[in-house]
Amino acid sequence: MKPVLALVGRPNVGKSTLFNRLTGTRDAIVADYAGLTRDRHYGSGKQSGREFIVIDTGGFEPDAAAHDIYREMAKQTRQAIAEADVVIFVLDAREGLSVQDHDIANELRRLGKPCLLAANKAEGMKDSSRLAEFYELGFGDVHAVSSAHGQGVRALLELALDML
Ligand code: GDP
Ligand code: MG
């Protein structure tokens, strides 16, 4: 069985962009607004001869009622965490920590999955103290990446695969 990596995080942090980087496809829909991807999305990738599966999350039916959207997103996140061997918890380095980030962190703790923190959109960020607040989540190191530019993505992937 190939190991499964799940990408979780609140809308618009760049999960689908990271998914495309990791899988080398543009299969997941990348939106300029939050949450266009309709479904949990699976892709496969290979790094240094190691194959893996990636799950993108965050899709919902666009016509669903607002409360259903949030319920659906939470359900997808839970399912993806449950299916994963390692979770990559994606954060927005420019926006910083949010209430939703704390909710996801609590879910990860409850399910007890190995987890890596990826602070995305970190290209050109000279001041790494902006990332300090993410340590509050209690998952250790924060890995600065730029999914859009590919920076730090390979190193993150190597770390994730080494956790297996
Ligand atoms: P998702 O909702 O978490 O799947 O986020 P998307 O992958 O759809 O990305 C949301 C927005 O953030 C899009 O406009 C992306 O182009 C942008 N984005 C994604 N990764 C990066 C990044 O590394 N740097 C910057 N500046 N923008 C990014
Ligand atoms: Mg997405």
CATH topology: Rossmann fold
Query: Number of DSSP strands?
Result: 6
CATH architecture classification:
3-Layer(aba) Sandwich
CATH superfamily: P-loop containing nucleotide triphosphate hydrolases
Query: Which class in CATH terms?
Result: Alpha Beta
Strand order of the largest sheet: 2-3-1-4-5-6
| Radius of gyration computed on alpha carbons | 15 Å
Number of domains: 1
Beta percentage is 15-25%
Structural class label: alpha/beta
Number of helices: 4
Oligomer: single chain
Give a list of the ligands. Answer: guanosine-5'-diphosphate, magnesium ion
Mean pLDDT: 85
Gist of the model:
The chain has helices at 15-23, 66-83, 99-111, 153-162, and strands at 4-8, 41-47, 50-56, 86-92, 115-120, 142-144. With 164 residues, it is α/β, with parallel strands linked by helices.
